[in-house]
Specification:
By secondary structure, the chain is α/β, with parallel strands linked by helices. The protein contains five helices and six strands, in the order E-H-E-H-E-H-E-H-E-E-H. 32% of the residues lie in helices and 13% in strands.
Length: 216
């Protein structure tokens, strides 16, 4: 499990050809069950397994990015997230995909657990988890995507330099629009988002091939 206090400080160079699809957990990848750390209640959101099947065939790193303020609020111990991560890896594998990384933010400025009751640079809409994942996996954020179900996800992705997709599934209720909270695109569910990402990258690859042929 990768949290700010347990992450490596190694900073590998960015691979300009390594893209990632960052995925919010609750409400995007999984059905939204507040503060859940019970693996038995972890179920894919509509379209999520189909999305993973589609993305598994492409050279994207697949990384989950999730605020887990339940740690700071005393609803569960941070060790419970190890079980959640293990379940996520099994769920990805059931769809033929590999979960390349999981990043949690356990903080909340109004928390009751002193160690985690703080402001931080990793709690979305801050981009800290994305930036850390990019360093540790050598990811080019400019060719990567972040898919989430609320505008805090969009803001984190945009500020980090990713393209962003907002799932229009009714989970966003505070439509506070600023320049950094405008998604690149909207999608009905994660499967639709994955198809949009794949279509975009196919077009980019085709354009790059055409330019290469012209140069030759």
């Amino acid at each position: 499990m990768l949290t700010p206090s347990r992450m490596s400080h190694v900073k590998p160079s960015v691979n300009p050809h390594q893209s990632a699809v960052f995925i919010d957990k609750d409400g995007t990848l999984l059905e939204d069950v507040p503060y859940n750390v019970d693996p038995q209640q972890m179920r894919f959101a509509p379209g999520a397994c189909e999305a993973l099947c589609a993305l598994a065939c492409c050279p994207f790193k697949l990384i989950v990015i999730s605020n887990q303020s339940g740690v700071a609020l005393g609803r569960f111990d941070i060790g419970a997230l190890d079980v959640v991560e293990a379940k996520l890896r099994a769920m990805f594998a059931s769809c033929g995909a590999t979960l390349d990384g999981v990043y949690w933010c356990p903080h909340h400025p109004e928390g009751s657990v002193p160690t985690y009751a703080q402001s931080c640079d990793c709690r979305k809409p801050a981009p800290g988890m994305l930036l850390r994942a990019a360093r540790e996996h050598g990811i080019d954020l400019g060719t990567s995507w972040f898919v989430g179900d609320i505008l805090d996800d969009v803001e984190a992705g945009n500020v980090a330099g990713c393209k962003t997709i907002l799932l229009d599934n009714g989970h966003e209720t505070v439509w506070r629009h600023t320049q950094t909270r405008v998604p690149t695109a909207y999608a009905r569910d994660l499967h639709r988002a994955a198809l949009m990402i794949l279509q975009y990258h196919e077009k980019c690859s085709a354009s790059a091939s055409d330019l290469s042929g012209q140069a030759a």
